[in-house]
């Protein structure tokens, strides 16, 4: 239980600073008069806060010519938020590749990179590939490593709060890996590690298929699908970070492995990779009966997994991503079957961001972290209005 | 984005009133000096607020003798929150019975009642039974209907925000029933209708098996189980109020009806009710092989449903309630199988509240509603500290 009156002067200063920064960030340029009007703060308070923000490198006075309109007489001083005062990284670690995206403090993307990595590569090699990708990206952008304010990482597996991979069967040597700790050696800023389906969900909500939707599930469809969910616009991690790990549902009463499921012969499909599966789908389209049955089995399993999520969570929208989303003929059966089995069927859409989703969501988490530091004060400012 | 300084005087009055009421409610009796100390408000402010609360009937000055300690000289005036200033009802509507629980504004239970109702009873008859139960309960407690401040209701089915049953196959004539509107005719105070598994989850969190747990799932285990989930201590209803309706999962790829599932003959089990099912369980314990197989099938289905929820949500605790919870031998297999299939198995516990869970949770929802009105001001007071 708190109170509104009185209070801690340094807390008030931080709140006022956050309010002014928020106002400046929302406008391209602003005069002190405009900031005073928008924030409701007094002119002396605004002046003091803006001076402090200039000292911190977060705000700069712009030349009057940069402003949109000049009036008669002495032009009013104009200020803007320095989005270039710091930088953020979003990283993806996957079975076949690592990727990185670089942005400024407004989340504006300045560059991206991706590097192939062998699916059998040990953990050290995979992390080294990622480090190389980051170094390349920073060099190309001319960005000093010291300018980084936060790094987000999307990785397969169940990830604990400190960035340790509790369970990660998709990548060699991944279970138990202290991924956060390992990556923190490369960066002086905070490193936030999150499950890849979770970051993808965040990304589609930020700038993908779910920008208007606060209750959504992202299905990273593959051989053993994972999922991320936003509830009320917030990531739902679960008590132990394992929410959405629906892949294990198959194990219940249905012993068929994906290799058997997708086989068109009497032998399990081997190797079980995206190319092999795409071929099965292609054969099915050409009329091959055994391929058609294999595809049917695959889709039924996907439907079952997604239905379990939908029945448990009742989202407004399901976004399907991952490589299976690229296969022709996944979306329509999914829509049809969900409508059949769910009491309140959700909308179903394909990922807009495609393979950029995981790194983009990781970037958003880094941005959230920085915004929380810069713009929020103990929930007071953000919780109100 | 809001601001801390300045502000609306009537808002400040409401905040101060809520703060004082909260302080008084937390103590049995308090002096103005104590309230001043606890709240940090000025003495004149506290005096003004307390006078206003006395006028509103929510606070009363107690005789000095009621206070714990008397000092030398003129004793300080003492005040207390009048929990008897209003009353709340929690109602349950089920297939076989209706039930009601009555409390004061502190949620202290003053009385309960339950009445049998036939599972084939039409909606009008079922609602009439509930009205009779409420009338009996109020009369026995000597409580005027006008004293009710809020009524919570737990009902099977997917319930919309206005209390209309969107889908309710468990009760005759339930789908489409404007249950909230119908019940509002009997009460002048707010009537809040919620899915029964949801209210049961709230109840176990309030005073049952999950008092220490904010991420939990309540499984209302029966022939077609429903579930309610709390995430971060808050009820997760889903976008369309259909979260947790996992019963439909069976339909996917497994066409066996509960009647067939639990049959020990070549004919479906009929009638399919609690007694018939209990007999099957009893026969299984006595060594009947077909009964054993039926029980096995039943438990496997329950495990599958619960696993789907657990994989989707990753709760800390699963509480099993509903009539199936009363059957010997449900809990252990559930625990064992969840540990086998879930990446991070939750704890599993039996409902503590048993058949009181649904009405108790409905009462808690009514209490939440009243507390929000009395003690919270636009999230400001509760969101801080």
UniProtKB/TrEMBL annotation, chains A, B:
The lineage of its organism: Bacteria, Bacillati, Actinomycetota, Actinomycetes, Kitasatosporales. InterPro entries: ATPase_NBD, ROK, Tscrpt_reg_IclR_N, WH-like_DNA-bd_sf, WH_DNA-bd_sf. This is ROK family protein. Belongs to the ROK (NagC/XylR) family. Residues 20-60 form the HTH iclR-type domain. Pfam families: HTH_IclR, ROK. Gene3D superfamilies: 3.30.420.40, Winged helix-like DNA-binding domain superfamily/Winged helix DNA-binding domain. It comes from Streptomyces durmitorensis. Transmembrane segments: none annotated. PANTHER family: BIFUNCTIONAL UDP-N-ACETYLGLUCOSAMINE 2-EPIMERASE_N-ACETYLMANNOSAMINE KINASE, ROK (REPRESSOR, ORF, KINASE) FAMILY.
């Amino acid at each position: 239980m708190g109170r509104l009156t009185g209070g801690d002067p340094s807390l008030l200063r931080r709140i006022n600073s956050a309010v002014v920064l928020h106002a400046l960030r929302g406008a391209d340029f602003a005069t002190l008069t405009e900031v005073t009007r928008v924030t409701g703060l007094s002119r002396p308070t605004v002046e003091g806060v803006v001076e402090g923000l200039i000292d911190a490198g977060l705000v700069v006075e712009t030349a009057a010519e940069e402003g949109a309109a000049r009036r008669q007489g002495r032009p009013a001083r104009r200020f803007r938020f320095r989005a270039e005062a710091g930088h953020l990284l979003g990283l993806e670690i996957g079975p076949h590749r690592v990727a990185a995206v670089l942005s400024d403090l407004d989340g504006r993307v300045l560059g991206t990179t991706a590097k192939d990595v062998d699916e059998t590569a040990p953990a050290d090699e995979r992390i080294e590939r990622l480090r190389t990708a980051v170094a390349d990206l920073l060099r190309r952008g001319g960005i000093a490593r010291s300018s980084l304010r936060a790094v987000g990482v999307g990785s397969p597996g169940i990830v604990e709060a400190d960035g340790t991979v509790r369970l990660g069967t998709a990548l060699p040597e991944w279970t138990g890996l202290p991924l956060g700790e390992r990556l923190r050696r490369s960066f002086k800023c905070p490193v936030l590690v999150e499950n890849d389906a979770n970051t993808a969900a965040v990304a589609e909500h930020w700038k993908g298929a779910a920008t208007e939707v606060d209750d959504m599930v992202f299905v990273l469809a593959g051989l053993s699908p994972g999922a991320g969910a936003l509830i009320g616009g917030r990531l739902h991690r679960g008590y132990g970070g394992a929410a959405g790990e629906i892949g294990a549902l198959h194990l219940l009463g249905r012993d068929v492995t994906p290799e058997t499921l997708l086989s068109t012969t009497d032998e399990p499909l081997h190797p079980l990779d995206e190319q092999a599966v795409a071929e099965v789908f292609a054969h099915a389209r050409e009329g091959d009966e055994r391929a058609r049955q294999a595809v049917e089995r695959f889709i039924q399993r996907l439907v079952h997994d997604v239905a379990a999520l939908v029945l448990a969570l009742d989202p407004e929208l399901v976004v399907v991503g991952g490589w299976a989303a690229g296969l022709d003929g996944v979306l329509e059966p999914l829509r049809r079957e969900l409508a059949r089995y769910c009491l309140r069927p959700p909308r179903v859409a394909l990922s807009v961001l495609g393979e950029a989703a995981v790194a983009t969501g990781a970037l958003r988490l880094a941005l959230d972290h920085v915004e929380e530091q810069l713009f929020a004060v103990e929930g007071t400012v953000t919780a109100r209005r």
